[in-house]
Design goal:
single chain, 399 residues, alpha+beta, D-amino Acid Aminotransferase, Chain A, domain 1, D-amino Acid Aminotransferase, Chain A, domain 2, 2 domains, nine-stranded mixed sheet, 20% helix, 26% strand, binds pyridoxal-5'-phosphate, EC 2.6.1.42
Length: 399
């Protein structure tokens, strides 16, 4: 794999540039056998390694994983990527891989006290047409993080730094990339105000990190269609708020709606706009599309809706196959009179919706083989997994 930045340096877990494994444990404990000090600032050393400490970053096969029943649970992997930005340095400099594990934070860090943080989510797939892995439009995630960082008064990594970091994280954890067709390695970049601050203000220091986990399907329904509930009391976003950026502070406030819906057997809720309570926006972690006749509509991203990379890709793919796609207000009437409804997102892929419950009435939609969502799902995943030619230049090779 590509060495971090300077070819002569040993990797943080003690592998020499010649490729020999010195021993992850020594690197982990910061005792490189006297051969050199640990490259990580001590405060970022993982305090609790989750896995056996041997360096397995060159191994291909995953341990005892049941690849057929992955779901979206957290399977800890070997390495995470860490890059810091301090006021003195004036930007993100050089990041490093570290053993995956707990991190240390000041109790008065900006992220813990004021929620100054952003996350991202993207997947690495094992390539079908040869060795190596592919990422799907990682620059889009990088740009979205930059945009969100502006809103949250944080510095952000450059697109190049972001994509490089993602690639490093994949390569260090390659034994955790599921076999073709079984899922993907989900990458979770975080950007947090890690510096200590008491009064409400931007933190004096920031940390960008990425961890990884192998995942299968997001909903417990698997690939099957889901049932959604329209939420009328709790809103996820408001005009002028932060619904359009992936800030960590958007998600805990919707747990209540999500948990209540789950207890009634729904996979998730659909949020309505907070002003008129009449226009559907999206679900807790995915975007929404409605299909009627040959027309497809999805709520326009005007600040209250998260601009999904999958959403944007699906709009393009649907247009390519002759559908008219409108980004506009989608009323509750448009929704309940639709032929077909589906959700999109990195985690959920393209998930068909079989019913939506609104004010006690259950509305049904077409699902199955002969649907647009199925067609788009196949087209999208074929590109992502390298089964179809990527004419759009959306995939990025990692090898
Ligand atoms: C992440 C997210 C999405 C989907 O975005 P993708 O880039 O397609 O993964 C949609 N809605 C919300 C609220 C999200 O957090």
């Amino acid at each position: 794999m590509a060495v971090l930045s300077s070819a002569k340096r040993a990797l943080p877990w003690g592998r020499t540039s010649a490729g020999g494994v010195i021993g992850g444990l020594r690197a982990l404990l910061g005792t490189d056998g006297g051969g050199g000090r640990s490259l990580l600032p001590s405060r970022w050393k993982s305090s609790q390694p989750q896995l056996d400490p041997v360096d397995r970053s060159d191994e291909e096969g995953g341990g005892d994983i049941d690849w057929d029943n992955l779901g979206f649970g957290l399977t800890p992997t070997d390495y995470m990527y860490v890059m810091r930005c301090t006021q003195e340095e004036g930007g993100f400099s050089r990041g490093e891989l570290a053993r995956y594990g707990n991190i240390e934070l000041s109790p008065s860090s900006g992220v813990l006290n004021y929620g100054q943080g952003l996350f991202e989510g993207l997947k690495a797939y094992r390539r079908a047409d040869g060795p190596g892995y592919t990422l799907f439009r990682p620059e889009e995630n990088a740009r979205r993080m930059q945009h969100g960082a502006g809103r949250m008064c944080m510095p952000s990594p450059s697109v190049e730094q972001f994509v490089h970091a993602v690639k490093q994280t994949v390569l260090a954890n390659k034994r955790w990339v599921p076999p073709q067709g079984k899922g993907a390695l989900y990458l979770r970049p975080l950007l947090i105000g890690s510096g200590a601050i008491l009064g409400l203000a931007p933190a004096p220091e920031y940390t960008f990190m990425i961890y990884a986990a192998p995942v299968g399907t997001y909903f417990k329904e698997g690939m099957a269609a889901i049932n959604l509930l329209v939420e009328e009391e709790i809103h996820r976003a408001m005009p002028g708020g932060t619904g359009g950026v992936k800030t960590i502070s958007n998600y805990a406030p919707v747990l209540k709606a999500q948990m209540d819906a789950r207890s009634k057997g729904f996979a998730d809720v659909l949020y309505l706009d907070s002003v008129h309570k009449r226009y559907v926006e999206e679900a807790s972690s995915c975007n929404l599309f409605v299909v009627k006749g040959g027309a497809v509509a999805t709520p326009a991203t005007a600040g209250t809706i998260l601009p999904g990379v999958t959403r944007r890709s699906i709009i393009e793919l649907a247009r390519d196959s002759g559908y008219q796609v409108e980004e506009r207000l989608v009323s509750i009437d448009d929704l309940i009179s639709a032929d077909e409804v589906f959700c999109t997102g990195t985690a959920v892929g393209v998930t068909p919706v079989s019913t939506i419950t609104y004010q006690g009435t259950r509305y049904e939609f077409r699902t199955g083989e002969d649907t647009l969502s199925k067609k788009l799902y196949t087209t999208l995943t074929s590109i992502q997994m390298g089964l179809a030619e990527d004419k759009k230049g959306w995939t990025v090779a990692v090898d």
